[in-house]
From TrEMBL, chain A:
<dbReference type="GO" id="GO:0005886">
    <property type="term" value="C:plasma membrane"/>
</dbReference>
<keyword id="KW-0812">Transmembrane</keyword>
<feature type="transmembrane region" description="Helical">
    <location>
        <begin position="33"/>
        <end position="56"/>
    </location>
</feature>
<comment type="similarity">
    <text>Belongs to the CPA3 antiporters (TC 2.A.63) subunit B family.</text>
</comment>
<feature type="domain" description="Na+/H+ antiporter MnhB subunit-related protein">
    <location>
        <begin position="6"/>
        <end position="125"/>
    </location>
</feature>
<keyword id="KW-1003">Cell membrane</keyword>
<protein>
    <submittedName>
        <fullName>Na(+)/H(+) antiporter subunit B</fullName>
    </submittedName>
</protein>
TrEMBL record, chain B:
<feature type="transmembrane region" description="Helical">
    <location>
        <begin position="650"/>
        <end position="675"/>
    </location>
</feature>
<feature type="transmembrane region" description="Helical">
    <location>
        <begin position="321"/>
        <end position="346"/>
    </location>
</feature>
<dbReference type="InterPro" id="IPR046806">
    <property type="entry name" value="MrpA_C/MbhE"/>
</dbReference>
<feature type="transmembrane region" description="Helical">
    <location>
        <begin position="404"/>
        <end position="428"/>
    </location>
</feature>
<dbReference type="Pfam" id="PF00361">
    <property type="entry name" value="Proton_antipo_M"/>
</dbReference>
<dbReference type="InterPro" id="IPR050616">
    <property type="entry name" value="CPA3_Na-H_Antiporter_A"/>
</dbReference>
<feature type="transmembrane region" description="Helical">
    <location>
        <begin position="601"/>
        <end position="620"/>
    </location>
</feature>
TrEMBL record, chain C:
<keyword id="KW-0472">Membrane</keyword>
<feature type="transmembrane region" description="Helical">
    <location>
        <begin position="75"/>
        <end position="96"/>
    </location>
</feature>
<dbReference type="Pfam" id="PF00420">
    <property type="entry name" value="Oxidored_q2"/>
</dbReference>
<feature type="transmembrane region" description="Helical">
    <location>
        <begin position="26"/>
        <end position="46"/>
    </location>
</feature>
<keyword id="KW-0812">Transmembrane</keyword>
<keyword id="KW-1003">Cell membrane</keyword>
<dbReference type="InterPro" id="IPR039428">
    <property type="entry name" value="NUOK/Mnh_C1-like"/>
</dbReference>
Amino acid sequence: MRLSLILRTAARLLVPLMILFSVFLMLRGHNEAGGGFIGGLVSASAFALYAMAYGTQDARRALYADPRTLMASGVGIALVSALIPLFSGAPFFKGLWTTLPGGVKLGTPILFDIGVYLLVVGMTLVVIYELDDDGLSLFPRDNRPGTTPPSSPAA
Amino acid sequence: MGIVLAVFAGFALALVAPWITGATGRATGWLYSLVPAGITAYLSTFIAPVAAGETMRVAYAWVPGLNVDLSFYVDGLSLFFALLITGIGTLIFIYAGAYLKGHHHLGRFFAYLSMFMAAMVGLVLADNLFTFYIFFELTSFASFVLIGFNHDEAASRRAAWQALLITKAGGLALLAGFLLMEQATGTLQISAILETGEAIRDHGFYTAIVLLVLAGAFTKSAQFPFYFWLPNAMQAPTPVSAYLHSATMVKAGIYVMARFHPVLSGTDLWFWLVGGIGAFTMVLSAWLALQYTDLKGILAYTTIMALGALTMLLGLGTETALKACLVFVLVHAFYKAALFMVAGAIDHGVHERDITKLGGLRSKMPITFGAAVIACLSMAGIPLFFGFIGKEIIYEATLHLDQAALFFTGAALLANVALVASAGLLAIRPFMGPLNDLTSHAHRPDTGLWFGAAVLAVLSLGLGLAPWLLDSAILAPSLSALMGAEATPHLAIWHGFNLPLALSGVTVALGVGTYFAWTPMRQSAPFRALERWLGTGLDNGYDHAINGLLATATAQTNFLQNGYLRRYIATILGTTVAVVGYTFGHFGFEGPVLSFVGIAPYEWILSLLIVGGALATLFLSARIALVAALGISGFSIALTYLMYGAPDLAMTQFLIETLTVILFVLILAALPTLSEVASIGHRLRDGVLAVATGSMFTALMLAVLNQPFENRMGEYYMQYSYSEAQGRNIVNTILVDFRALDTLGEITVLLIAGFGIYTLLRLKRSKTSEKVEASRASEQVEQLS
Amino acid sequence: METLLAFVIGALVAIAVYQLQRRDLVRMVIGIVILSNAVNLLLFTLGRMTRAEAPLIELGAKLPPEGSANPLSQALILTAIVIGFGLLAFSLVLVYRAYRSLDTVDAQDFVELEFDDA
């Protein structure tokens, strides 16, 4: 697929905003509409948009982490948030809260939601990136000089 | 504490035996026998207090919520059996060390054998129905691995499976019986159940309890019609046959009947079922034994005969019968274990067990010969040997019955005649006469191979001469426990000239006659038919049953799981619709009054969009149009959520719809379009099922909506969301706090799905795909050329 | 509206069941999507619908406003939507992968190929 200038320009503007918004949605989720699932989906949409505009290789580079790592660490973080209360003698999964100076409340359920967020981002991007890498090549290929696009499949 | 140690010592040995056996070398059997010998010595310290009327109980909470304890109980009966198990076990361990000398899996063998011994000791000492059941099953499992010890032989594997299937099926019945017993008595503690007197007999479950418990006992103790597994179990190495399938494990079933005798016996059902099946098994197997020429075959069937006799005596239930039962347990264990060890020694020295091919071995193995003669004299019930005492009391018991005395005496006589003949075959055929080609090369057995048989022979002779030694120390406490009442039995060699003595004389005379008529009798048509029907016949019946089961399973699988998703769906949904439809038809359908008043126009529009979008997917064929139609339906659902107070759901649905579109576009571009190929008839059939299922959903929903709404759960979360979970978004607090464990499960599912997708896409191509790709390539070549 | 949705859901289920029985695997996946949507709506309807407030507690308050929507069914559906997406993605990739390997999206061919491979 060819690169679309309009899409690239829009994406450059939209993607950071969407990611920022997704974090906002996740963090406020405990009190207002939002949460880890929704935040994660918004963030995944942002990276999907980026991939549409610039190709998955660039999108992977923009994400830094491998989506698989995101998935696994998401579940890991959720599990850790469940284990933390055990150290203070509380039962498994008991929500523990502390209030920072300035009135900001932090608690293990927020950590849990971060885990959910990462899992959702990772899982969605694994599907999209891997499918495109498998040779569907609907998204643009890396077009910088010096790199050759992988051959498309016979299908 | 000591009792627990006594039970678990065997398990401990089982754990270490595979690792240390390499280092113990020739001394292995003697060394390991110290474990059962030590347990025997420890348990012997209980003889005096138990004889004085004491009982010991230790209990540890195991699953306290279900009243399951790891508890053990020492009384006369359990001590009697426990001593028998560890005592014979000591001799078997020594014997096994010599018999399997140098075997490359000797350590494994001893691990299994010790595990079995521990399970058996645990079984007889158990004081909780579940503890009992678990040890009962462990003995079946140990028997399975020991029968299948030579697992590279198909016959061993088959015999092991057969024994396992039959005894485990019985074990399940026993478990059910135990659960009913708990219902009837309100306790799982065996010693407490034994105190309940008439509670079980008067309970409505009595018949069921008896039938279920007996199913467990009869399968384990090889009663008709389940006995056919026992001769097959002779595939096991001979020490196993001697120990498990003669002296101990098969007596677990006898122990079950004896243990619960005080609370289950005394009814006509018990008398005729236990007494009758026991007598039938006894006579049948005694004569079947004469059909065999294999030493172990004869021993196997005479073992079933002994188990039948013990079962019969427990069924008769008089004091004399119960005394006879206990004495016969000892008598049989002593001579039968000895004879198995003799058979094993012969097999070890000559590599042949067919009595028609053996002969003259008395000069080659004189001590073994002596032990065999004494054991056989005891088996035949010749005076001055222990077996004589046993047989005398059995006759005494059957003669003094209030009912059917003639029937049971006749049965006992008939069985004992055959037993005398079998004893003759076992003592005379292998040892007397001239040496032949086979036996002249026999080598002298090791000490370990004759030691056990010799000790047991000495016991058979010694207790025959001085049977009163058993009276107060062993017999009185075990008989009291068996009867549930005080008893003071007395054994004597000489009872004067009486009817039992005369019967003994007749038995021996007829037995000797049978011995001399053996060869023609064995080959006669009626006896062959007997063996064909009730010997191999039952065994073949088992094969037919198993094959039938497998064939049924295969047919059912082929019918239900044929690879056509359409048929799965039709089966599942068709059944559901039929069942739900029947329920509505039977109990009536109550829906709300159908009223569409007050539904705003935009709600009608949304509903139409939801259904319309989905409906369009049926008629569109262009992939991209399909996705668009699906999206319309999905976005309309999101709007519905939004309007009815669910902003979280609306957002999620919007985002998911977006990602779904991306996904479909990515994939569908690569997939071909398939035009509908189903005939009108098929489509009509599918449509009928679809409409029926849809109608069922609507009807179910209307019925549910007609019920008053119960929302305690929802209100709970509303009330505590802020105070307990510190959150103002209640949906979110449910997800990440109240039900966070569920959410963790769900994200784990997504994780697995994610890795599944990754693996699918990176998977190496399979053979089929290579084939497909090759054919695709060749087609292209053809097209080009 | 609840009564109306009972019929909407019935229609969705009927369409989904019909699609699930198609030989075209893509249509089968579409059937799965429609069925997930139907079941989510079913949960939503049976949790009783109200046009009133979302189950959110206002700043400073301790309890949600009187008569707000049922949060329990919403929590159930929220995860169900995401799980449904996971299922959809997995089935679609499976279909795609099967097509790459076996060169067909016809369920009928799969049964025949399955026996070839043995």
